[in-house]
Write a structure and sequence with these properties.
By secondary structure, the protein is an alpha+beta fold. 61% of the residues lie in helices and 10% in strands. The chain contains eleven helices and four strands. β1 and β2 form a beta hairpin. α3 packs across α5 and α5 runs antiparallel to α6.
């Protein structure tokens, strides 16, 4: 979607909201200034600088939220001149309003608008992550059952043998860490299942490990516990190598996520709605 103004809206902040070619919302600093009551853009620039400092202090990259660009601005009598402007993210606007003159009524409206919009986006992002985790966890359960069946056909029959087989996969993917090591490194409590506390990125890596191990054992008709263990470890190492080559975070360094069972319960409650 191009950088077009949105349809007319009674909310002054919605009226000047734009979207870029990636469908991300942004606000133009020279359009936001008069809405907030700043007729002199130089005075507004002082507020922007305070907001940029607040952004930096919050641990965010200011350049990701305050993007400089040049645009043609009408200066009167139909004449235009190229001036520097900023593309402001929703978070940047929120910080600007937090640092603007609190005595203006429009500032109070802006604080409410951008606070609500920023929180709504946070909840949307969180919801997307939770939905993805729920889907991947269900796929992981299904593929672990299939992997167990394939391993059994290869000669991994006893429960202890299968636990050893699974540990070989974890050791390959987690740089030598076994299941109990991962559990301890993540700071999980006794009885907490590591798969239930993985975020979507970590779950996806483990799902790929499981599916590729199952496929390799079947495709190469691998027989014997030792060979099955070796295969699982090799596949885990390959997945780990791919993560490293892509510059991703290795799974043992990913933080533990909220228990997926709590997420599932909460999601069902939301879908069911109020009694």
């Amino acid at each position: 979607m191009s950088q077009e103004l949105q349809p007319v809206n009674p909310n002054p902040f919605e009226r000047i909201r734009r979207t870029n070619e990636h469908d991300f919302d942004f606000w133009n600093s020279r359009e936001l200034a008069p809405v907030l009551g700043y007729t002199d853009y130089r005075n507004f620039e002082a507020v922007i600088k305070k907001a940029q400092l607040a952004c930096f202090n919050s641990g965010q990259e200011a350049k990701d939220h305050f993007v400089e660009y040049n645009e043609m601005v009408e200066i009167g009598s139909g004449a235009k001149r190229e001036l520097k402007s900023l593309k402001l993210s929703r978070y940047a606007c929120y910080l600007i309003i937090q640092n603007a003159n609190p005595g203006k009524e429009i500032i109070a409206r802006g604080q409410t608008y951008f606070a609500v919009q920023t929180r709504r986006q946070e909840l949307t992002d969180q919801s997307s992550e939770n939905e993805l985790r729920l889907r991947l966890r269900e796929e992981m359960k299904d593929h672990n059952k299939r992997l167990a069946g394939t391993a059994k056909e290869a000669g991994v029959v006893k429960p202890l043998d299968y636990a050893i087989f699974q540990n070989h996969g974890y050791m390959g993917l987690y740089g030598g860490l076994m299941k109990q090591d991962i559990h301890r490194k993540k700071g999980l409590k006794k009885g907490q299942e590591i798969l239930d506390h993985m975020g979507s990125t970590e779950l996806a890596a483990n799902l790929f490990r499981a599916t590729q191990t199952e496929d390799k054992i079947r495709r190469e008709k691998i027989i014997g516990k030792d060979k099955a263990n070796q295969t699982h470890a090799e596949v885990g190492k390959k997945v780990r190598q791919t993560i490293q080559e892509l510059g991703g975070t290795l799974p043992e360094h990913l933080p533990p996520a909220e228990n997926i069972k709590k997420v599932a319960t909460r999601t069902k409650r939301v879908l069911k709605g109020p009694e």
